[in-house]
Design brief:
Layout lengths: L1 H9 L4 H16 L4 H9 L8 E3 L2 E3 L3 E3 L10 H4 L6 E7 L12 E4 L4 E4 L8 H8 L7 E5 L10 H12 L5 E5 L14 H17 L6 E5 L5 H14 L3 E4 L19 E4 L3 H15 L5 E4 L5 H10 L3 E4 L1 H6 L3 H12 L1
Parallel strand pairs: 3-4, 3-13, 4-7, 7-8, 8-9, 9-10, 10-12, 12-13
Antiparallel strand pairs: 1-2, 5-6, 6-11
Helix pairs in contact: 6-7, 7-8, 8-9, 9-10, 10-12
Cofactor: FMN
Subcellular location: Cell membrane; Membrane
Enzyme class: oxidoreductase
Length: about 350
């Protein structure tokens, strides 16, 4: 019903306006007595075979929602009712920022893709913490970044501020240095700046109780040499793992006229490249650290492909928009058939 009736209506309107409308609708529906339990019964697959233990955390299933959908942690409790094993909020920055000028979100229907140049729009980490205090048992990851006006040489301080503010309220952290929509951010993926940044967060983690996992989210556009550097950096800094991958700046093979829009591309065109990156990292590291696979997952087969390539968990975003809320259930049921 979603793809035949609901999606065609939603896709008649501006994507960002639809996003806000959908948020308000889901929030309102969940306030109806009994509705949250009903949604969980429809969309959730409960089976011990789906459970995973990764970087010291127990996931009820391996399918999560990627960062960017619930940037400010306003809807993670309600979204968990669609069957996700975990929700990643953010990207959050120390100070609120509006992001890039609108329009900044574009559907590429002919390619089953999205281009965004949001630019870390969020209400700031302290506002998100207020929402996270109301967590009702959801496993949450905190995706952190730097403010646009912060120069790269001072970026570590922005990440530290977010890290410390979120420490008591998230289960794991994701260091986002791979968004193409914040000027010069991807320069932080270079070996020496990245080692310095991750080491500083690891130092803070060792001083804290609980020692929550820190992961690195990388771009799909890295060369093999750069990916080898990532493997060495993970080993040298001792972080828990990698999320592969963020959006791409490549436009190879696209048909939609919106392909000319500047920003990061997500969706089906990213599927093969993100899987290649997962496979390469897993092979080069000899499976020494966990990988969360994300990029172009629109079906159970897509998810299985990433798991077989070496991912321990997977995340969806664009597939959730194109395929509808039933996608998570279909993936989990598909995984059960393969077990």
């Amino acid at each position: 019903m979603y793809k035949s009736l609901i999606r065609p209506v939603l896709f008649q309107f501006d994507p960002e306006k639809v996003h806000h409308f959908t948020f308000a609708f889901i929030k309102a529906v969940n306030k109806i007595p009994g509705m949250r339990a009903l949604l969980k019964s429809i969309y959730t697959v409960n089976d011990p075979s789906l459970e995973r233990e990764v970087f010291g955390l127990k996931f009820k299933n391996p399918v999560g929602l990627a960062a960017g959908f619930d940037k400010d942690a306003r809807l993670f409790n309600e979204l968990s009712g669609f069957g996700f094993g975990f929700i990643e909020i953010g990207t959050l920055t120390p100070k609120p920022q509006p992001g890039n000028p609108r329009r900044r979100l574009f559907r590429l229907r002919a390619d089953t893709a999205i281009v965004n140049r949001m630019g870390f729009n969020n209400g700031g980490v302290e506002e998100a913490v207020k929402c996270l205090r109301k967590n009702k048992g959801v496993l949450v990851g905190g995706n952190i970044g730097k403010n646009k006006v912060t120069p790269n040489e001072d970026a570590a301080e922005d990440y530290r501020i977010c890290f410390e503010a979120l420490y008591d309220y998230v289960d794991y952290f994701v260091v986002n240095v791979s968004s193409p929509n914040t000027p010069n951010l991807r320069a932080l993926q270079d070996k020496e700046p990245l080692k310095k940044l991750l080491s500083s967060l690891q130092d803070h983690k060792l001083q804290a109780t609980g020692k929550k996992p820190v992961l690195l989210k990388i771009a799909p556009d890295l060369t093999e040499g750069q990916l080898r550097d990532i493997v060495h950096i993970v080993e040298e800094t001792g972080i828990a793992g990698v999320i592969a991958t963020n959006t791409t700046i490549s436009r190879e093979g696209l048909r939609s006229p919106e392909k000319e829009e500047v920003g990061g591309l997500s969706g089906k065109p990213l599927k093969d490249r993100s899987t290649e990156v997962i496979r390469f990292l897993n092979r080069e590291s000899k499976g020494s650290f966990p990988i969360i696979g994300v990029g172009g997952i629109h079906s159970p087969g897509d998810a299985l492909e990433k798991l077989e390539a070496g991912a321990s968990l997977v995340q969806v975003y664009t597939g959730f928009i194109y395929e509808g809320p039933g996608l998570v259930k279909r993936i989990n049921k598909g995984l059960l058939r393969k077990l």
